Structures are given as structure tokens and as C-alpha cells.
Amino acid sequence: MSVGAASPDEFYDAYTFDVEPRSLWVRAFHRFFRHRLAVASLVILGFIFAVGLLAKQLAPYPYQHLSIDALSSPPSWSHPFGTNQVGDDYFSDVLHGLGTEVRIVLFVAFFGTTIGTLIGALSGYFGGLLDNVLMRLTDVLLTMPPLVTLLVAATYLHANTLFRVALLLAGLLWMPVARQVRATCLSIREREYVEAALAAGASDVRIIARHVLPNTIGTLAVAATVMTVSAVILETTIAFLLGAGISGYVTSHTERRLPSLGDVMASASQEGLYNWWGIVFPGLAIVFLIVPIYFIGDGIRDALDPAGRLKGAPRRARRRRRTLTRFAARLLRAVPRPTFPELRFAERAARIPLPRVRFEFPLIERAVSGIRRRRLGRHRFLTEALAILFVTAAAAGAIYVFGVSDVHSPWRVAGMQVQNVSRARGAQTEVTVALAPAHPHLLFAASNDSLERTVRVYGSTDSGRTWSSGVGPSLGLDDCARGEPASAIARDGREYVALVVNPFCTDESASPYLVVASRSNVRGRWRVTPVVTPRVNDSFDAKPALVAAPDGRMYVVWSRLLRPTYVATVVSSTSNGGRTWSKPRVVSRELKLPKLASATVDAHGTLYVAGVDTRLGVWVARSADAGRHFVLRKVGPLRLESWNDPTTCAIAQKYPTPNEATRCLGPNPTVVTARQRVYVTYSTVEPNGRYGVRISAFDTNLRPLYAGRVGPLKRGAADQFWPVSAVDPSSATLWVCYYDTTGDPSRKQAWFVCAISSNGRRWTTPVRAANESARASVLWEDARIYGFGDVIGYGSYPGLVVGDGVAHPMWIDTRGLQGRQQEVMTANLSAKAIGS
User: Fold this and answer.
1) Are residues 653 and 750 in the same domain?
2) Which residues pair with 737 in a beta bridge?
3) Residues 324, 273: one domain?
4) Nearest-5° angle of CA 110, CA 112, CA 117?
5) Could you tell me where the beta strands, DSSP code E, fall in 436-476?
6) Which residues pair with 613 in a beta bridge?
7) What is the mean pLDDT of residues 474-500?
8) What is the mean pLDDT of residues 257-275?
9) Is the separation of the CB atoms in 782 and 427 below 8 Å?
10) CATH of the domain at 296
11) What is the enclosing helix (H) or strand (E) of 134?
């Protein structure tokens, strides 16, 4: 063999190559996984599906699990998505809701795609009368509004399971899929391969299954994803806007809770914008569910669309080595080949003169240019991402420094013997405290308790140095305390507590009634007496106030529904230790929707009542004949926000509701008397949009003397809210305590402060009762709660009594104290230490 001759195998390998054939589905599979966005979406959607289907195993808490240890908690390690005002963990609720949405996606995608594909394929392939009938039916269904149709159909078809609801959604949303499939089939049935299959004798079913449907999958994928996403959006919209989502259909017929993300968002929307995490995180979960579905549909279309099969990059040919036959080998040997001298390859290549030829490959140059542009685009994208990350980090740092970092109140701490009074596991709200007129060292207090069937009571026999805490009076087998307690001590030392009671513990009642419990002393047995015989469905009692008169008479003032649209402030009294109560008398029929009553009695036995209403704003009334007749006076206008405006709060379609102690929280009017003066303190929104505490002074005949503001004149943009006032009988000094956000520009932290005055005009510099602050947003959440009593909120009104120059304020602490984040705190403040 001559030198340099190529063997047959080498010659075949050099001049021949084969292409491995691949099916449509293999090509589509490889094309889909070259779609990076679709692959990333597939991974994300697979993770979401796995989390949703395993929600019961992964969720740390059951759905709507109440936890009083984390009420209105922001996102943290223990609660990644935060909690609502009842301690319900949003992370667990989102997982449970995601499980429902995942099942909806699977069911609707399968049934809706099947129905739409079947009808569209039959209509497009056969045409004629069948096409006309099916498409007119589709047109009729398309004209029906899906929102109304779903609500009506779910009610009359008894869609009380998730499967039935999903099937109903699929039955209402398959029409666009059928339209798209029909349009594609109309063009495919005219193709040559379909006519060839008909000529070969293939049946219609075989042609539709083998030739028509596979070529519609690209269009079908997009239509099916749009339909599936529409089902999720429709269900969440109904749940969020109308409160009738999946759980509304299923739970009403079964005991099983089946929430959706729309239900979670609807529940969070009841709390306003303070708990923003209740809206944001479920909304992000919906976005991360529906966006990958869209991208996966685009990827399937690009992979299976026949018009786009040749748009991809050319596949590199694979060479295959084959063994030549003997005849082919002999034939190749007979072909003459050039010979070369015995030189090394490098020397041989150096001796061959090569002309300078410029080769142009436009396709390769375009590809290289595209790669360069993509690299430049990636570098630019990376640079922009780093810049955005830097700006975001800088903004977050600035927010932390100026808004989240530690804040300090300018007022000094004057409280002594600061202590936790309640020391109870439940949420303590609505504090009231009383002082024995004949024995100033005896104190009696009460508060609502979220875990007890009655209120919690507290007592001190050493001027507030030590306190006892215990359960209040028993209310019977079925009754439960709604809360709103008021306390008082008569001149003979008998202790009274008034509270509103629900007739049933397990239900929110529309007819709560008022009871007053009394006992002879701290160790005495409680006697519970309804002030008025309870009536069902046509009356309710709300927000009582108790006051003891010098002659031993005890007065109770409260709001009572007398007619379906008429609520009045009424007064009743007892002179026999609470055994019987007089018939309630209306304070004034000039008042319109009066609320938040407060009462006091001066040294001469004159009864004064204050409150708010929609006509006068803040009002005060006087009775010199034991509550039989009253003289009414206007105190001042009341400006509040939309949610606690007296004209709209605790009103449901013009009908009053027994929720004024929570829904109307804010003004907190208090009436006290001292030295022939009557003082009314209250909170209102100032012209600068911030809450401020105001005071109005009257003489004993309710002739106005002056009005002004409590506290420093230059208070900046701080909020001062929830005032409570009291008078020291020994010196006639007026005390006012309230929450104050001075020292925190963001107005998120509030300190409980107190100031004193000898005449209601000039005030001392406020002092803090304790060093620690409370979260203002948590306190205000109590005004936005819904449901049974005060079981799901912090805050509400504080309490204050003064005796022998020492004030005993009681307020709500929102810090975590030994795992309890709602406790009643108290302190002793001396007038001498303040500088009076």
C-alpha cells in the first residue's frame, strides 16, 4: 500500500455522517428544557404543589388556630408571615389555603381542558350542523357573567365539596379552550397528511387522536393555562370581596374547615393596614402560583407548535462509525491516491504556499455577535441588580436608623412600685379601678380576660404595694362575660363590678345584657343580679359605668337598645346593696346614638353623666334628683377617624349593635368633680391630624367656664389618646393619664404618662408611669376587632384612682412578659414627686 493512503474505514468516517431520527415528543421534550423560564417555572410550581399537598404535615398550626401569646405579631422567626389580632398564624393559614388552591388547579386544569378539547375538536373537525350547535352553546355560555353564575350555581347545585366546586369552575370556564381548539382544528383538517390518512381508510377517531390533537397542543396549552389561572383568580376574588369562597360553600355543609387564600386575605382585610402582612403574604402566594402556570404554558407552546419547530438552533450531526462490506473496501482500494515524501507534518505544512483568502460566514458571525450581546446584556443586568440591591439596602438601613431604631420619651419616669397586676395567661383588656372612700388604702379593680368565662378581679389592701389576682363572679352554666367591666366601692366597703354578659358562650349574641355583682369584702361571696330582665332579639346593653354616692346609693349608667333603631343612655340605682335595681331612666331623648357613658357623683349627691353622640359630639348631663331628670349640655365637637366616628361606628345598616366599647374606641370621655367644678376630659383628632387630649370645665350647674388642651402646648406630631381622669379627694387635685407617643417620630411606641393640675388650666410636665412603652398599633387594634366580645384584642380603656396624694393608674402592657403579651400594669405616682 502506498504511503499516505487512507483506509476504507477512515475514508468513510471522513466523508459520511448519519442523523439519528427523533420523534415529535422527544424533540418537544428537548425544546421545552431549552426554555429556561419555563423550566424555572416548572421547578417553582412543583415546589408549590408539593408544599400545598403536604400542607397539613408542614403547617406548624391548624387553620385559624388562636394563640394569645402572639396577638398581632409582625413577621418573625416563630411566625414567618406574622399573626392577626387573635394570634392566628398567617404562615399556617397560607399553607392550608395553598393546599386548596393546588387542588383547584389540578381539578380545573384536568376537567376544563378535557371538556374544552373534546367540544372544540368535534366542532372543528366535523363542522356543519354539529359545529353550529356546539359553538352557539359556547357563545351562550360566554355571555353569562362567571361571578354571578358561579354563586347561583353553587347554591342551587349544592356544591358543598371541593371536587364539586372545582367541577363547577371547570364547567364555567372551558369555553375559551374549546374556541381555540376549534380554530386550530379547522386549519389542520385541510392539511395533506389528514387527507392522506382519510384516503388510507383511517377512522375519524384515529385521525383526531393521531393527527389533529397532537398539532393543537401548543395552542391548547396556552388556553388551558389561562383557564386555570382564571379559576384561581375567580375563586379568590369571590372569597376576598364577598366573603363566600371555598370555605363558605364547603364548611357550611360539613364540619371540615377548607380555606382558600382568598379567605385568608378576606380575614386579614378586616384588620385594616396595621397588619399589612396579612394581605401581602397571601397575595404573594397567589402570584407565585399563577405566574409559573403562564410561563409553563408558553414553554409548552414553543416546544409543540409545528410552526416553530425549525426556529431552534440546528442540531449537531452525529457521526456513526460503520463497518464497510468487502466489496466496498476493494472498490476504495482501487481508487488512486496522491503520495507524499517522508517528511514530518510540520515541515510538510511549512513548505506548502497558502494563498491569503478571506472566508465570510454570515450565520456564524451573527451567532457570535448575538452571544456577545447576550453577555453584555447579562453584565448590564448584573450591574443593575447590584445597584438596586445596594439602594434597597441603603433604604432599609435608613428606615431602621430613623424609624425602627430605639426611641426615647422626653418625659422622666416617676412611677414607683411598677408591677404586673394580672399575672394571667389570657389577654387582659378594659381596665377599671376603684378606691374605697372611707379607706384609701383599699383598692379594687377588674378587667376583661380572654380565657375566662367571667372577668378577672384584683385587690390591694396596702395602697397598691401588693395585689391579688383572681377570677371574678360566676355567671351560670351557659353565660359568658362579654367584658366591658366597671368597678366601684361603696362607703360601707362593699365591692361592685358591672359587666356585660352573653347568654351563650359559643356564639356571638346580638342581645347581651347587663349584670352587677357585689360582695361585702375581698373574701366575701359574689351576688350576681341582672339590672334588667334580659330580653332576646329586641334589646342589648353595652359599656356600663358605676359610681358610688355619698349616701350609699350605687348608680349604673349604660347604653341600652330600646327600639330596633333607637339606643339611649339610661341610668339605674340601688340602695340595698345591689339586691334590686330601679327601672332604667333615659338620660335625655335629645341624644342621638349616645355611646361611651361615664359617671360621677359630687359631695352633695348630684349625679353627672358624660358621653358622646352623633348630634352634640361630647356631652355632659346633670341630675339633682337621683337620676329622675337631667339637664343636658354640649361639651365640644368631636372629630375622629372614619372607623370610630360616632355616626358610623357600631352601626349595621342603620341598626345599632352592642360593639361600642370596641368599634367606637377613642374618645374615652371621663367626667369628674372638684371644688365646685365639673371637668370632662376626652380625646379628639386635632387640626394637625394627630390625637390630642382636651378638657372642658363647667360650674356645678353646667355653665361652661373654659376649654383647652391637656399637656404641653408644643407637642409636635405626637399622638395623645385614651385619657382617663380622677380627682384626689384630699386636695382636689385633678389628674389626667393617657398614652403619649412623644419621643417616637413614627408614632409607633406610646408611653403611659400622667399630668396634674389644680384648676384644669395649667398642667405640670407629663411624667411616665413606667419606663417601658406599648405598641400604639397593637392598642388600637382593639377598636377593629370582630367576633365574640374582646376575646381577640389588646388595649381598650385604662383606669385611674387617686387618694391621699398618690395616684394608682392601671394600663395595658403589650410586651412579652414570661410568654404573656397582654398584662395589666400599675404603679404608684406621688403628687409631691411630680412637683405639684
Assistant:
1) yes
2) 724, 754
3) no
4) 95
5) 443-449, 456-460, 468-471
6) 617
7) 90
8) 71
9) no
10) 1.10.3720.10
11) helix 128-142
pTM above 0.90, yes or no: no
The C-alpha torsion from 786 through 788 and 794 to 799, rounded to 10°, is 120
Q: Is 492 helix (H, G, I), strand (E, B) or coil?
A: coil
CA distance 234 to 108: 12
Main-chain phi, psi angles of 284, to 5 degrees: -65, -35
DSSP class per residue in 143-179: TS-HHHHHHHHHHHTT--SHHHHHHHHHHHH-HHHHH
How many C-beta atoms lie closer than 10 Å to residue 374's C-beta? 10
Please say whether the beta carbons of 519 and 527 come within 8 A.
yes
In whole angstroms, give the CA distance from residue 749 to residue 607. 37
Q: Is 396 helix (H, G, I), strand (E, B) or coil?
A: helix
Last residue of a domain, one of 288, 311, 334: 311
d(CA 19, CA 619): 95
Structural domain boundaries, residue 349: 317-362
DSSP code string of 232-247: HHHHHHIIIIIS-SHH
- Domain CATH number, residue 531: 2.120.10.10
The DSSP secondary structure of 773-809, one letter per residue, reads -EEHHHHHGGGG--SSTTTT------EEEEETTEEEE
CA distance 816 to 819: 5
Helix (H, G, I), strand (E, B) or coil at 490: coil
Residue 817 contacts residue 434 (beta carbons within 8 Å): no
Residue 105 pLDDT class (50, 70, 90 cuts)? confident
End-to-end Cα, the chain, rounded Å: 125
> What's the CA gap between 572 and 578, in Å, rounded?
11
Distance CA 478, CA 649 (A): 29
Which three three-digit cell numbers place residue 542?
353595652
Distance CA 632, CA 588 (A): 7
Instruction: Answer yes or no: do 702 and 749 share one domain.
Output: yes
Considering the chain, what percentage of its residues have pLDDT values greater than 70?
77
Residue where a domain stops, chosen among 247, 277, 311: 311
Phi-psi label, residue 111: left if phi above 0, alpha if psi -120 to 50, beta otherwise? alpha
Q: Based on the domain organization, do 227 and 342 belong to the same domain?
A: no
State whether 520 and 576 are in the same domain: yes
- Check residue 9 and give its pLDDT: 59
* HSE (side-chain half, CA atoms, 13 Å) at 340: 12
Burial 459-494 (b: 16+ CB within 10 A, else e): bbbebbeebebeebbebeeebbbbbbbbbbbbbebb
Does 84 reside within a domain? yes
- Side-chain half-sphere CA neighbours of 234 within 13 A: 23
Residue 402: inside a domain, yes or no? Answer: no
Question: 281 with 331, same domain?
Answer: no
Question: SS3 sequence, 813-825?
Answer: ECCCECCECCEEE
Please state the domain count of the chain: 3
626 and 693 assigned to the same domain: yes
**Phi-psi category of 150—alpha, beta or left, where left has phi over 0 and alpha has psi -120 to 50?**
alpha
Residue 4, Ramachandran bin (φ over 0: left; ψ between -120 and 50: alpha; else beta): left
* 241 in the same domain as 326: no
- Find the mean pLDDT for residues 83-89: 75
For 19-28, the CB contacts below 8 A with 24+ separation are 19/315, 19/317, 19/318, 20/318, 24/214, 24/304, 27/309, 28/303, 28/304
Neighbours of 213 (CB within 10 A): 20
The arithmetic mean of pLDDT across residues 314-333, rounded, is 50
Task: Output the average pLDDT for the chain.
Answer: 80
Give dist(CA 445, CA 595) in Å, integer: 23
Helices 8-15 and 326-333, packing angle to 10 deg: 90
Burial 648-682 (b: 16+ CB within 10 A, else e): ebbbeeeebbbbbbbbbbbbbbbbbbbeebbbbbb
d(CA 827, CA 416): 6
